[in-house]
Amino acid sequence: MDIGNLAGNISLGLSTALTASNLFYCFIGVLLGTVVGVIPGIGALAAISMLFPITFHLDPTSALIMLAGIWYGTSYGGSTASILLNIPGTPANAIVCLDGFPMSQQGRGGVALFMTTAASFIGGSVGIILMMLFAPVIANYALSFASTEYFALMILGLVAASTISDGSTLKGLAMVVFGIAIGTVGMDLYTGQARFTFGVLALSDGVNLVALAMGLFGVAEIIASIRKVDTRHLDRSTVTFRAMKPTSDDVQRSAGPVARGSALGSFFGTLPGTGPAVAAFLAYAIEKRISKTPERFGKGAIEGIMAPESANNAADQTSFIPTMALGIPGSATMALMLGALIIHGITPGPQLMTQQPSLFWGLVMSFWIGNLLLVVLNVPLIGLWVRLLLVPYHLLYPAVLMFIGIGVYTVNNNPFDIWMVTLFGALGYLMRLLKLPAAPLLLGFVLGPLMEEHFRRAMLVARGDMMVFIERPISATVLALTVALIVWNALSSYKRWAKRKALAMAG
């Protein structure tokens, strides 16, 4: 990219983003996004859906700036509930529960929140820089991916999901398959036939992702806590700024995961149909796989929160590349962004950057302003979030349950979703008793329908020839990596079994 053109575009973007009205809407967006993210059960999609009508009365740039602020603001705030309450503010923050909540139980909730704020800012900054420098190149690269490549990536993601949680790899794979099975509920995309709905009309559109995530991670935590005595006594000294200061070991352990998470999130954000949740799960799986001490994960490992947080924030930013440059929404939230453009008479696509340069670059530069505002908002309020742990259980969890119910209901305004939350809450508690991991189930649910869609599309194009996955170099390479990962998992499981057997014989 020509440096002179880039400088001119940055200047144009700043002149647009720094107007009083756009600054105001950027602040409103990130503030609402943070609050929505902190409140369990109300995600970005619900918030944007409720506030979408407001944008009809704004100019297109202000509308997009506010909606975008809500979108990436929820990623900042969503980790708060994951760390303090073991309840993900958004599905992308679900993986942070695994190590963020144990850190909170160890009296390091303030450190965890401070470090996730730093990871979110760095990941978001990397995503913005890539969008500024390589938007046309990355958009063209994503456009070259066919269904064969997407299917191969989905397979890799699902196999990697089996390594996310502690315990048996077979249990992880079983939960992935179970998640895929839940994802098949609803109307068949190609034939329009109802599948596994059992005559329930409310299941025609499939199982609600928010209901699934909140049930498995939120309601299950409340059920598990009913008979507990309030043993989480948090020392008030942990809410001071001095207590939030990370150790040098925390910083050293975080550098690599943040770099890898930002790179992974930036890549997956550009691919339509993937997004921050997939990036966060894979970032966690990779860090656990390459760690010399994988047994620390799930028990308060700082890497377990830094990698997924940097990944989902980087993906949040780069997900705008296919949406703005190609007109291909990577998620339901991005579809709402496209809706805002279309309502204002703007057609998203490859010509957007040339026909509406002030809108595109004004939006990009507002990302910098929004990310800085989020750091300014989040760091001083960390003490307030940590003090949530001081609220007695009998007061805190009924309120949390209420917010979960409200949040799930507002997504589709469907009372059936509340019943689904209850069902998945009971299922999540049963899975805890059986030591079955919930995170692979969630990823299987997200990736399964996408995998099925791309597989069927690839088969239609190739006329049923399965060799198409091997003949295309990118998909062949990804599938080879998947096979290598399966072999690695098998060897690791065998070594652990042999080690346990040797210890048993020695004892």
Distance between the termini: 65 Å
Q: What is the count of helical runs?
A: 21
Compute the CA-based radius of gyration.
Answer: 22 Å
Summing up helix and strand content along with how strands pair, one would put the structural category as mainly alpha
Quick overview of this protein structure:
With about 500 residues, this protein is mainly alpha-helical.
Task: Quickly list its features.
single chain; 507 residues; mainly alpha; two-stranded antiparallel ribbon; 21 helices; 2 strands; 72% helix; globular; transmembrane helix
What does this structure look like?
The chain is mostly helical. It has one domain. Helices cover 72% and strands 1% of the residues. A two-stranded antiparallel sheet has the order 1-2. Helix 4 runs antiparallel to helix 12 and helix 4 packs parallel to helix 16. The termini are far apart. The relative contact order is 0.18. About 1% of the residues have low confidence. This is TctA family transporter. Keywords: Membrane, Transmembrane, Transmembrane helix. Pfam families: TctA (PF01970). InterPro entries: DUF112_TM (IPR002823). It comes from Pelagibacterium luteolum.
What is the topology?
Layout: H1 3-17, H2 20-38, H3 44-51, H4 60-85, H5 97-105, H6 109-143, H7 147-161, H8 169-183, E1 186-187, E2 194-195, H9 209-225, H10 248-269, H11 276-290, H12 303-318, H13 320-326, H14 332-343, H15 352-355, H16 357-386, H17 393-412, H18 416-433, H19 439-462, H20 468-471, H21 473-506
Antiparallel strand pairs: 1-2
